[in-house]
Amino acid sequence: MATTSDIRRGMCIKHNNDIFKIVEFLHVKPGKGPAFVRTKIKSLTTGKVLDLTIPAGHKIDDVRVETRKFQYLYNDGESYHFMDEETFEQLALPETAIDAPQFLKEGEQVTILIKADDQTPLTLEMPASVVLEVTHTEPGVKGNTATNATKPAILETGATVKVPLFINEGDKIKINTATGEYIERIKD
């Protein structure tokens, strides 16, 4: 058992018979009334995000989790398959357990949260950004824009993102996995 003073980003807790990961939190001490912690939590089974307010000093049921490195192998249409890089064991995760599955590239190393009690895989933590190659995009026409124009580009994983006009097929670009937005072009 933990208390509200132990809350930190990324911590996993049990709430309403489900396991949630704390996405954001804020300790609030109003001028009038007792202190409380305002949190934003994400279900590791359904992916739903909830706002939860917990009174200060309240006990919370924390869940012990381990992080392990896995290599992404393939998607069979129903689930995504990964291999443990140490034991070579394979496991499958449903699409709901992955934040941005459209940016997963075969062979990429990812981190999976595993419940320590029974070794159940909970969720996949995507890296903050990924580098992917543009496989298709329309050529940008010089002079047809005023400022900050974008065009759609299809990446090697099949995902579509908006990119600036100067991006061409074959370019490698960095993508923010949380927002799905273009960050920069990677020069070789």
Average pLDDT number:
85
The biggest beta sheet is recorded as: 6 strands, antiparallel
CATH arch. level architecture of the largest domain: Roll
- Supply the number of structural domains: 3
Helix and strand content put the structural class at: mainly beta
Strand order of the largest sheet: 1-6-2-3-4-5
Task: Using the coordinates above, name the CATH class of the largest domain.
Answer: Mainly Beta
Give helix % range.
Answer: under 10%
- Any idea what the radius of gyration is? 20 Å
Give the uncertain stretches in residue-range form.
none
What fold name stands as the CATH topology of the largest domain? SH3 type barrels
Alpha plus pi helix count:
0
**Number of E strands:** 16
Beta-strand residue percentage: over 45%
SSE series: EEEEEEEEEEEEEEEE
Silhouette: flat
What does this structure look like?
This protein is mainly beta and 188 residues long. The chain folds into three domains: 2-62, SH3 type barrels (Roll); 65-125, Nucleic acid-binding proteins (OB fold (Dihydrolipoamide Acetyltransferase, E2P)), CATH 2.40.50.140; 129-186, Nucleic acid-binding proteins (OB fold (Dihydrolipoamide Acetyltransferase, E2P)). It has no helices and 16 strands. The chain has strands spanning 2-3, 12-15, 18-28, 36-43, 49-55, 59-62, 65-75, 79-84, 90-94, 109-115, 120-125, 129-137, 150-155, 160-164, 172-176, 181-186. The strands form three sheets. The chain has a six-stranded antiparallel sheet, with no helix packed on it. Strand 13 (150-155) and strand 14 form a beta hairpin. The N and C termini lie far apart (50 Å). The model has no long low-confidence stretch (mean pLDDT 85).
